[in-house]
Design brief:
The protein contains 13 helices and 10 strands. By secondary structure, the chain is of the alpha+beta class.
């Protein structure tokens, strides 16, 4: 019995009142959405009403569905995300945990806008500030790298993964690995005595143009799989540095912060963003390289890997490399060469 058949059978036996429906289930349709890195997503049409089913496919984060469900319930009153309707973490249905969410029509920013405008930036700043204002210390959520040191540890772990995978094809301590290690050491040295201490709040964890939905002229955050507790400065830095195809200009960054700080006061926010900027730029580069290996070595769930072409990920790795080089994070004498970083058969597959 395949996954979709199991889901349909499960939904046929579900109490529809849990989803806000009355009566018996008369019709059911399932349609797969774009596969995420650690989720399978489906639209379920039950008695002509749409819902979203998000299935956790990340064995390293067995509690991810529950954490996402709890977080969505906590912020429900803000109306900045889909409502979480049902959680199943029994693993009795498909051997994976999943949640059922309300379906919100609309388009994500990567499909809605060609460039950022003032109104969109202000709206985004407002919902991010409202999210960061919530008092959630009692929530049992993943601590999402709350300190500078924890970001360094995350980068180091990703470099170690790259080393292991590259060892199958390259020397263990070649030029590329030495540069990665030396760059991490340089960033670490600059953070030995950080002047500005970290703060902690509820964060979405992955606010990018693909995860911001335009719904009835309002912005809604979707895909809360990376939700946790972390420094709001790190979240905002990621928005500025890794939002996606649409880039923030310096003027747009200032507008975002001006709007945000009207709602949530934070005296050292700008200074902490300056500290996080090189960290997150380098983290993006290391992650991009690691991600190519994850796909090339088929270390991610099958549905994601089979739908991915390495070309866009190789291009992203080069793009993040160029940013790190142009801003002095990487040695300016170091030239990008995909052949030096990745095995030949990865490049032939493009």
């Amino acid at each position: 019995m395949n996954l979709e058949t199991k889901l349909k059978k499960y939904l046929l036996g579900l109490d529809l009142k849990l989803l806000g429906l009355e009566g018996k289930l008369k019709s059911i349709k399932l349609k797969s959405l774009e596969f995420g890195e650690s989720n399978l997503n489906y639209i379920a049409v039950l008695n002509k009403k749409k819902f979203v089913i998000r299935i956790n496919m990340d064995p390293k984060m067995p509690n991810k569905s529950r954490e996402e469900f709890v977080a969505l319930k906590t912020i429900e009153h803000l109306k900045i995300a889909p409502r979480a309707l049902f959680l199943d973490d029994s693993r009795k249905v498909i051997n994976e945990t999943f949640i059922i969410l309300e379906y919100l029509p609309g388009h994500t920013l990567n499909k809605h806008l060609k460039k950022l405008n003032r109104r969109t930036i202000e709206k985004l700043a407002v919902i991010v500030a409202e999210l960061h204002l919530l008092h959630v210390n009692k929530l049992k959520l993943n601590i999402e790298r709350p300190t500078y040191a924890s970001w360094l540890t995350g980068i180091k772990n990703n470099i170690e993964y790259i080393k292991i995978k590259r060892a199958k094809y390259f020397e263990r301590n070649d030029k590329f690995i030495r540069i990665m290690d030396n760059t991490l050491s340089k960033i670490k040295a600059s953070l030995e005595t950080p002047k500005y201490q970290n703060k902690r709040c509820l964060i979405h964890g992955d606010i990018c143009e693909q995860n911001v939905l335009v719904n009835n002229n309002q912005l809604v955050l979707i895909d809360w799989e990376s939700v946790g507790l972390g420094d709001p400065a790190a979240e905002i830095t990621k928005i500025f540095e890794a939002f996606g195809r649409i880039k923030f200009s310096d003027e747009q960054r200032r507008l975002f912060l001006k709007t945000y700080l009207k709602i949530r006061k934070d005296k050292t926010l700008k200074q902490r963003i300056q500290i996080f900027t090189p960290l997150i730029r380098y983290e993006q580069f290391v992650w991009a390289v690691m991600h190519v290996f994850e796909i090339g070595e088929k270390d991610m769930h099958t549905s994601f890997v089979k739908n991915k072409n390495l070309k866009e990920h190789l291009e992203f790795a080069e793009e993040t490399f160029n940013l790190c080089k142009s801003t002095g994070i990487l040695d300016k004498n170091f030239e990008w060469s995909a052949k030096m970083v990745f095995p030949k058969h990865y490049l032939r597959s493009v």
